[in-house]
Amino acid sequence: MDFFTSMDISSSGMAAERTRMNLISSNIANANSTRTSAGGPYKRKDPVFSAVPATSGLKSPFERDGAMGVKKVEVAQIREDQTPPRIQYDPTHPDADEKGYVSLPNVNVIEEMVDMVSASRAYEANVTAAQAAKSMAMKTLDLLR
Amino acid sequence: MALDGIFNTTIRLLEKNLDLRAMNQNLISANLANAETPGYIPKRLSFEGELKDALKNRGGDTPPLTDPRHIPLNGRSAGLDRVQGTMIEAPDGSVGDDGNGVELENEMGRLAENQILYNATIQLAVKKFEGLKTAIKGSI
Amino acid sequence: MEINGINSGAGISKIIPANGAIGAGGTKAASSSTGSGNFFGELVGKVNDLQSQADSKIKNMVTGESRELHEVMIAVEKASISFQFLTQVRNKALEAYSEVMRMQV
């Protein structure tokens, strides 16, 4: 039972939330980008988190941490939101199709802001957990003082 | 063995508590890291009831001696050493749409409680060892 | 001038009457409420009480029965201080005893 596993797990959480923040910033910044290198409007991106075992497979299967199955988080993939883009009627726009409709990105800025708050709270929670683990480890050194 | 008699039940209890709380800390960190993972149900370690039972049990689970020359194990501490704690997997509040059961507030509360009790246990262990040192040294 | 024996009642035997009590077969020690021998016995008993109280408070905290951290800390501190007090009293008593033994007759 070591605190380094705990700090490892917390840092994986922080990294995952940071990835999410990056994607949210990218979504917000491109909320109105009608053209991308792949053609078509910008598609909203979302991370997919998955819980993976925190200990390496090299440890003995009877080791408690492995048996407990503590899981850290990693970003399994970044998926593009496939909801159809917003359509707006604007024949003067350079990207308008033949009917005069422009496809705008399927980004809802309000939703992104809410996600951002949630990601930021989760990040702070992970920071607190890492600090708690560190403080406990330092306190353990007091046994020898 | 005379040396074992110095470290009485309380010290063993404190040791075990530290073990279990450190384990719990790992679980709570994992819960916090997976606060947004779909399908994740928070885990925690429940050991307080088991500790209580292990302390009450006197000689009930003393392993039998296979040879009369063997030194009998102190029944109380033998039960104490075997306490492992049970991992409980239960959602904190209601399970969200994506199957995630972690409530940030609950987990933060557990984190704080775990940390405080761990630190308190360390302090108590320090005090106990200091007491032993005073007794051995014969002076403060 | 009379030369009195050591146990003639001048000073020393008043300070450590415990020796006399032990010499009398210990019957006096139980009844006398003064005297360093009994004082020591009582002190050790009290220290032991405090220690076991502290132990049981620790047990309650660990098993989750009580969440009163301050009670545990205060009880442990009391036990520790009283144990240190006991140690010092013992040291001083021993010192006094060796001082007495060192005196030339």
Write the layout of secondary structure elements.
The complex is a heterotrimer of chains A (145), B (140) and C (105).
Chain A: H1 3-29, E1 45-53, H2 64-68, E2 71-80, E3 86-89, E4 101-104, H3 109-141
Antiparallel strand pairs in A: 1-2, 3-4
Helix pairs in contact in A: 1-3
Chain B: H1 2-6, H2 9-33, E1 43-46, H3 48-56, H4 75-81, E2 86-89, H5 104-137
Chain C: H1 12-15, H2 17-23, H3 27-31, H4 36-62, H5 69-102
Give an overview of the whole structure.
The complex is a heterotrimer of chains A (145), B (140) and C (105). With 145 residues, chain A is an alpha+beta fold. Chain A has one domain (3-144). Chain A has three helices and four strands. Chain A has a two-stranded antiparallel sheet with strand order 1-2. A two-stranded antiparallel sheet of chain A has the order 3-4. In chain A, helix 1 packs antiparallel against helix 3 (109-141). Chain A is elongated. The model of chain A has no long low-confidence stretch (mean pLDDT 86). Chain B has helices spanning 2-6, 9-33, 48-56, 75-81, 104-137, and strands at 43-46, 86-89. In chain B, helix 2 (9-33) packs parallel to helix 4, helix 2 packs antiparallel against helix 5 and helix 3 packs antiparallel against helix 4. The longest helix of chain B has 34 residues, at 104-137. Chain C is mainly α and 105 residues long. Chain C has a domain at 33-102. Chain C has five helices and no strands. Chain C has helices spanning 12-15, 17-23, 27-31, 36-62, 69-102. The two termini of chain C are 17 Å apart. Chain A binds chain B through residues 1-3, 5-7, 9-10, 12-13, 16-17, 20, 48-51, 54, 64-65, 68-73, 118-119, 121-122, 125-126, 128-130, 132-133, 135-136, 139-140, 142-143, 145, and chain B through 18-19, 22-23, 25-30, 32-40, 43, 45, 84, 87, 104, 107-108, 111-112, 114-115, 118-119, 122-123, 125-126, 129.
